Amino acid sequence: MEALKASEKVSVIIPVFNGAAHIRSAFDVLSKQTYDNFETIFVVDKKTSDDSLKIMEEEKGRLSDVKVIVQQGDTKLGGARNEGLQASEGEIVWFFDVDDVAVPELLSETVRIMAEKNADVVMFNFIRTRSADVKPPSGEFGIDEMSRNEAIAALLHLELPVTAWSKIIRKKLLTDNGIEFSFGYAEDVWHTYNLVNKSEKICFCEKPLYLYIQNEGSICNTDKNRNIRGKAEIDRYAKLEELFSGDEDIIGVFKKRSALIRIRSAVHMDKASFMEYARSEDCRTMLNANLHNSVSPEVVLFKVAPSLYYSFVEYYLRKIYYKDNKCFRKPKKA
């Protein structure tokens, strides 16, 4: 793609559903950005019943360019982001989550990297935390530059994030290729793999630029949605396998790694639902097709003792992977 300037307009797209408790904080975060050339687009679910719209009207004067759109239909989070993209005017887009926190230099750092490296996508490191007061580490950090194939491999090895908010994207990449968010859960998994699939260069900024606030009541963390989330992630990776089926450079590693991701995703479900999936014909067919000759201790444990596998992985996710104040990747200094 053609080179971008380090001063291109950015469209910050923020879906909102009953987000009144976080609106003022979002304005605080954006008003402190050291990058000036951006617009803010709030897309508010029409079923919102709190004071989100009222607070936006009160606060919008704090930023120079604010749009508020009331989302039509029942297209959920993915649809809200799509509507925001359609209304955007920037050359670069960033899908920010209203209940999280970005460091002041997030936009200036990532736009600079995109311009200097001529990247299609710039992803960034982040910290999972329950506190908005956590201070990210300071200093000079590295930048990983990857080709399309290298970035897909990194995604499959969980070395790059799939979350919608952890990257800035050239708008032209999305619009020229018709890349939109799907509706329902795990919509960012499908979106991230599709945009990386169409990219020539992807960069990852090692510096943590974002606080991913772990809210117990958020859409992905409530108990009633655990089964839906786990099943959705499994379905997304099954469809992605179809997407890459004709790609000889990718499909071999994709089948093996995505199978591992699917059985791990099943741990998001409650134990009874996990066991139902582990014993299902779909799961057994997938294991036989993708991991039939694997001697990995993880795969063997899943096959012979799925109940024990569930307990072990659930503990690992809760106590280690999602540990409070932990970076997605250990930051590498420049």
UniProtKB/TrEMBL annotation:
Q: Which InterPro entries match?
A: Glyco_trans_2-like (IPR001173), Nucleotide-diphossugar_trans (IPR029044)
EC number(s) given by UniProt: 2.4.1.-
An example of a GO molecular function for this protein is:
hexosyltransferase activity
| Signal peptide range | none
What Gene3D superfamilies does the entry give?
Answer: Spore Coat Polysaccharide Biosynthesis Protein SpsA, Chain A
Q: Which UniProt keywords apply?
A: Glycosyltransferase, Transferase
User: Residues in domain Glycosyltransferase 2-like?
Assistant: 11-141
Name of the protein: AglE protein
Report the source organism: Candidatus Methanoplasma termitum
